[in-house]
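Write out the bound-state structure for cytidine-5'-monophosphate.
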Amino acid sequence: RALLRRLWKGDASVRMLHPRLQKAMGAYLRANKHGVNFRGRRAAGRSRAELLCALRGRVRVRTLDGSEPPFSALGWRALVPAVPLGRLLPHGLRTCAVVTSAGAILNSSLGEEIDSHDAVLRFNSAPTRGYEKDVGNKTTVRIINSQILTNPRHHFTDSSLYKDVILVAWDPAPYSANLHLWYKKPDYNLFTPYVQHRQRNPNQPFYILHPKFIWQLWDIIQENTKEKIQPNPPSSGFLGILLMMSLCGEVHVYEYIPSVRQTDLCHYHEPYYDAACTLGAYHPLLYEKLLVQRLNTGAQGDLHRKGKVVLPGLRAVRC
Ligand code: C5P
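---
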């Protein structure tokens, strides 16, 4: 696969994608649904050291803390967990795993390696039961999009997937990060189920990502990309990678940049095929992955065989 080899080397372009995906991307660019108005400066030629330094200086994990309107007037300061997400996990987390849900992780036998990490991040409704050999069974943090909270198909209130883990939810807000507008018109109304879940399970750490954090990451992707990227939020995968880079000494990411097992199977746990899941239509996935490729300090063989990228934690970065 030519595109895969280019992705491994870091010089893929949108022009290499299937025409159907290119067309979808063009439509998202024209629609600009979230009102993106990029004012940053392009700096596409940064070295890895420069990139890491820029990330360390700019990336601040932020969750809703209830101090801003409209949430302040709704009593959210007392509703959100007392301990901020950044201080929840012990500072001594040496290595962390980010496990994407890509179909390519099937038959990887990565489970044992994944579970050997100090903390493991998973996404949305990705299960471990029945897939332990390939994905492991430890889950420390689960990032969930607002559809998980609102679509009855996911059984958010009952499913064991969402118990005994740290939950981090997000929803696409306007680029302006105007919290009033977002509260009135979220993509999917995650606020009501969030409040309900906090009231019923006050001891479970459960956060909502601040739109400023999400769009800050989008700005960073655009700044470091020559092409115009989709004006839509980064994927949960990219949000999770940057979250763990802020919390851990080192981050091992599995099947984000695809291995030789690359497949159009969207998720390892569902019989649904779509190349957009790996390369992106709505999310600027191709560009996220090119950026992560540039940050990879792991072995090229691990990338090809395991689909593994190794990234330094941001605390360890020296500028
Ligand atoms: O589809 P979902 O968002 O639940 O998957 C979690 C994350 O895993 C995605 O946001 C994306 O970053 C990554 N992923 C991928 N390739 C796939 C499926 C998911 O890179 N085929």
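---
The beta strands are 95-99, 119-123, 141-145, 166-170, 206-208, 250-254, 308-312.
The chain is about 35% helix and 10% strand.
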